[in-house]
Amino acid sequence: MTTAPTPIADEAAAVMAGQVGQLPDEIRAAFTDEQAELDAVGVPADVAAPGSPMPDAALLDAHGQPTTLTQARDGRPAVVVFYRGAWCPFCNAALRTYDRELTGALGERDVALIAVSPQKPDGSLTMQESNALSYPVLSDPGNRIGTALGIVTRPSDGARHAQAALGLDLREVNADGTHDVVMPTVAVVDAAGVLRWLDVHPNYTTRTEPGEILTAVATHLP
């Protein structure tokens, strides 16, 4: 009997439940407050519109070698996943799920799956190896693609203090030495490099489910 896949939303809920008792109350409160603020603000009004060219930039692969999104696509349509970094447990859960639930179906359609974050290449390598990911994990130093898409943000002051208390300084893990991150986002790009679908999640505890991605691919790619 085949076991139904666990939704990313359920995995995220398990992550948050696991933080109870593990993190001090004031740290959890800082993150909870930030999540409420992100929900209140919502998706930025200036995010890229489907039908526009997919932005590209000089990227680095997990071994620090130069590449671009166009090179990674290699003439194929693609699902491009933007995530915050290997330090984010919600990102780890999502990228593992995408490997498990998407790579086969996308491969049958010759659609590439690519993940992009602002972290240094060694963080990309950690993400790829620790989660046994079979698809490319790239670094976008300076969030150039994220900026062009309109999905760049940064943690609140309270969240940054909470991260520091946990030993995390984004200026050390990000390739450009800033606190800037991307909102978790999934983009569907056609073979000509045109953005066909974009799903932005300001609240990083939520993610695009695999079924939503497969529906978008079936709907928006020939």
Give the arrangement of secondary structure elements:
Elements (H helix, E strand, L loop, with lengths): L7 H12 L5 H17 L17 E2 L5 E2 L1 H5 L4 E5 L6 H20 L3 E6 L3 H10 L6 E3 L4 H6 L2 E2 L3 H9 L4 H4 L7 E2 L2 E5 L5 E6 L9 H11 L2
Parallel strand pairs: 3-4, 4-5
Antiparallel strand pairs: 1-2, 3-8, 6-7, 8-9
Helix pairs in contact: 1-4, 2-7
Outline the structure in words:
GO terms for molecular function: thioredoxin peroxidase activity. It is an enzyme of class 1 (oxidoreductase). It catalyses: a hydroperoxide + [thioredoxin]-dithiol = an alcohol + [thioredoxin]-disulfide + H2O. Belongs to the peroxiredoxin family. BCP/PrxQ subfamily. The structure is a single chain. The protein has one domain (8-220): 3-Layer(aba) Sandwich (Glutaredoxin), CATH 3.40.30.10. It has 9 helices and 9 strands. It has helices spanning 8-19, 25-41, 69-73, 89-108, 121-130, 144-149, 157-165, 170-173, 210-220, and strands spanning 59-60, 66-67, 78-82, 112-117, 137-139, 152-153, 181-182, 185-189, 195-200. Strands 5-4-3-8-9 form a 5-stranded mixed sheet. Strands 1-2 form a two-stranded antiparallel sheet. Strand 3 (78-82), helix 4 (89-108) and strand 4 (112-117) form a beta-alpha-beta unit. Helix 2 packs antiparallel against helix 7.
